[in-house]
Design a protein that fits this description.
Layout lengths: L10 H18 L11 H24 L21 H19 L3 H19 L1 H6 L18 E4 L2 E4 L1 H19 L8 H16 L16 H28 L1
């Protein structure tokens, strides 16, 4: 359980704000290399974050519509919880695309600039699940495994700390992307994100006890999407490298 010191503090909101500020700062370190204006990171935040929040909410509500059908206006009550990261990513991409059109900036350069910040932001944001006591996994019955970070105590019972697993995976993914970014070809950022994040989420989602499902099926939406992302990212690199070899030859 979160320490009593944090009781009453809007920790999720504070963590999201911290992630945005750190993300903008990191984007600023990539602008010159990608021939983007110095304020491109701030613009991405101003355009991408609101659209990401809208996308995250809509995505969640679509797959939990039975919970909102009786009171459709409850969709607007975001403060009650219910955001999905994949909807946020889709919404954020649309926001960045709109920014690129409005300011006539190269879309793929904006994405390459933003992707490392996105993964680090997810690593930070997942700790909001700890303070909200949500996004945990299956019960942990063995006393030998009932300790944090292997498990998390919720309502007097121990559950797999899936939020922590994903946070650490995202942090490692951020370090990989950040330290390889100078070797990317333009446009490599998104497929790399798809592979790195998808690989972790596809197995972590299988441990979650609060997954969104395709209505009427036992298929977890995020697990399916994660697998498709990994495949799509790998296909991109295989095809793009084959084209490069043909052009060289």
């Amino acid at each position: 359980m979160p320490p009593a010191f944090f009781s009453g503090l809007p920790m999720y909101a504070l963590l999201i704000c911290a992630a945005i500020l750190i993300g903008v700062w990191l984007c600023g370190k990539n602008t010159a290399r990608l021939s983007l204006p110095p304020d491109a990171g701030l613009d991405v935040a101003l355009w991408g974050v609101p659209s990401a929040l809208i996308g995250a909410r809509l995505y969640y509500c679509i797959f939990r519509w039975a919970d909102y059908a009786g009171d459709p206006l409850s969709v607007l009550r975001v403060w009650e919880g219910g955001l999905a990261i994949y909807g946020g990513v889709i919404g954020g991409l649309l926001g960045v695309w709109a920014l690129s059109r409005y300011r006539r900036l190269p879309f793929w350069a904006l994405i390459d600039m933003t992707v490392p910040s996105l993964l680090l932001g997810q690593a930070i944001g997942r700790w909001g699940n700890f303070f909200n006591q949500e996004a945990y996994g299956n019960p942990v019955l063995s006393p030998a495994l009932q300790f944090f970070p292997m498990a998390v105590l919720v309502g007097g019972k121990w559950y797999q700390a899936t939020f922590f697993y994903e946070s650490m995976w995202d942090l490692i993914g951020f370090l990989i992307l950040w330290n390889t970014r100078k070797r990317w070809r333009l446009g490599d950022g998104l497929p790399l994100y798809m592979i790195v994040y998808g690989l972790g989420r596809v197995w972590i989602e299988g441990l979650r006890s609060d997954s969104l499902y395709i209505p009427g099926t036992p298929i977890r939406v995020s697990q399916l999407l994660s697998g498709l992302m990994v495949v799509g990212g790998i296909v991109y690199f295989v095809v793009s490298r084959q084209r490069k070899r043909r052009n060289v030859s």
